Recover the amino acids of this structure.
């Protein structure tokens, strides 16, 4: 069974940084586009970023451009999201997801990021 | 960016009811639309791809249709396990965008 497990969430002060990781198993990461999607408390889903299989094509939602960086290590079957200059409005559960056909087909359980002083 | 608008935001219904959720796109997205079901504290689950293709294992009481800018998700006979929030998402272009969600609650 496909598994995605996020880690790295926590409490961080505004302006701080955090690096999220997503460890995948039961499939080879190198074969799939991957994405991060977030959900603020009590709110809807927001796509954050996607990355191509080889890591050479990336897309971001405007609100995180220049602050967040998506990356991957196919040899380690791991996906990452480096989050810098964090703001209160970045507070959310962050899900990593495997893409299939341009949309998210399999999701992790999520990791909570809280930006607060 | 393509805006996705779902209606209603909340839907109160009883077991056995037929319910329909609408999702409208601000521009033509052909059939690049998916539907997810999400339960509290859980990750979304993919129900429908390509606007109308039921994913393997999803009960046949779920159906979806539409193309272009207007889409619907229907549940023919609501079951207790169906009380959840439903999200539409377009993947015609980046940024991928979601509707605001429709919560189906017990009447």
């Amino acid at each position: 069974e496909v598994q995605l497990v996020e880690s790295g969430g926590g409490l961080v002060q505004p302006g701080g940084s955090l690096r999220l990781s997503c460890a995948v198993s039961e499939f080879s990461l190198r074969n799939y586009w991957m994405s991060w999607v977030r959900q603020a408390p009590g709110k809807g889903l927001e796509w954050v970023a996607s990355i191509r299989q080889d890591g050479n094509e990336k897309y971001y939602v405007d609100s995180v451009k220049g602050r967040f960086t998506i990356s991957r290590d196919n040899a380690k079957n791991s996906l990452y999201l480096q989050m810098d200059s964090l703001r209160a409005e970045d507070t959310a559960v962050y899900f990593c997801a495997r893409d299939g056909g341009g949309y998210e087909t399999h999701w992790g359980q999520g990791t909570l990021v809280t930006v607060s002083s | 960016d393509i805006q996705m608008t779902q209606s209603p935001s909340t839907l109160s219904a009883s077991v056995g009811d037929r319910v329909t959720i609408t999702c409208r796109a601000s521009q033509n997205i052909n059939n690049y639309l998916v539907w997810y079901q999400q339960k509290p504290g859980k990750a979304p689950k993919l129900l429908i791809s390509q606007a109308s293709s039921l994913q393997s294992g999803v009960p046949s009481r779920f159906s979806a249709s539409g193309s272009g800018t207007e889409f619907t998700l229907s549940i023919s006979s609501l079951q207790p396990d169906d009380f959840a929030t439903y999200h539409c998402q377009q993947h015609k272009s980046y940024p991928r965008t979601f509707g605001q969600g429709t919560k189906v609650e017990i009447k």
In short: Chain A touches chain B at residues 35, 44-47, 50, 59-62, 95, 101-110 (CB under 8 Å).
